[in-house]
Amino acid sequence: MAKRGKKYQKVAELFDHDMEYTIEEACDLIKQTKTANFDESVDLDLRLGVDPRHADQMVRGTVSLPHGTGKSVRVLALVNEAKQEEAKEAGADFVGLDEYIEKIEEGWADIDVIIATPDVMGKIGKLGRHLGPRGLMPNPKSGTVTMDVADAVKEFKQGKIDFRVDKQGILHTSIGKASFDVNEIRENLISFLQTILKLRPASAKGIYIRSAYISTTMGPSISLSRSSITSI
């Protein structure tokens, strides 16, 4: 294992790594574990008691964090001419259709979210092999295939995030920035966890949230107690 830097070792001594902490305690600690010279993300990692190989145990959805993610989100609106002005006025960074389909086929990927209207999905379907592995393929379940283009663009620009559990039952997401105050981090964390709890598949047996860790990009992970999560 690579030796950790002095800054990391110093903040790692602030808490007991064998202990689980309440949401309040963890959010207080996370503000003290920043080690980098940039504004680190605050990341959440959940291990869920689901088997995503079964469609009825796939945990996927969206959530609008109360205080956003602190990140600048680049939105592409793949829409016909009738919807293009609406998308531009709502704040989409890139707007168009055929020219962007061609760019994506050529390898362009300088985007975080793609929003499309249902009537263009026939054209976009062929982009699955390019967008699917990066989690960028528009999908009605994630709110990225809609006729309400303006609302969708605004929501994602303001901090709405799309999440999906991976093949191992792990869910990783960013819930803010280290520069956020403690209450902003706590409220974003609670909002995300509440969404995950509501999405528990009926077919998932046993413990649903098996483990939960919060950390800054370069800092040590802090374990959240399950009792603290299930009581929110």
Automatic annotation (TrEMBL):
Pfam families: Ribosomal_L1 (PF00687). One of its GO terms (molecular function) is tRNA binding. Keywords: Repressor, Ribonucleoprotein, Ribosomal protein, RNA-binding, rRNA-binding, Translation regulation, tRNA-binding. Gene3D superfamilies: 3.30.190.20, 3.40.50.790. Belongs to the universal ribosomal protein uL1 family. Protein L1 is also a translational repressor protein, it controls the translation of the L11 operon by binding to its mRNA. Part of the 50S ribosomal subunit. This is Large ribosomal subunit protein uL1. It comes from Rhodohalobacter barkolensis.
